[in-house]
Amino acid sequence: MSTKLPPKEGAAIWAKFQRAYLARTGSTLKKMDEPERLGPKAFHGRPPDRGTDEPEKLSEHDFVEDRLYRLVRQALEADAITLHRAAKILDRSLAEMRELTASWVMG
Fold first, then answer.
1. pLDDT < 50 regions, the chain
2. Quick check: helix, strand or coil at residue 5?
């Protein structure tokens, strides 16, 4: 859940943070800077994948639902399964499945 601040309040917080950071480090931050980048120790001695310096990276398991959706669509387009079966696999009603397939641009 994200709480959006009014623009003036957000700007005041950013200015306060900038002043504190400047006093502590002697330099300011741009909006794209990361103040305390994680070092190699954060990755238990292993280099992060794909050049990221974040401990949590996306893996194939993050896309299981997307993969299932894609496979069901491919099976439907190849006439390998029925619309009713596709709806059951994706846990949708037949009406929802009809609406979904109507939105697809067949290529």
1. 1, 107
2. coil
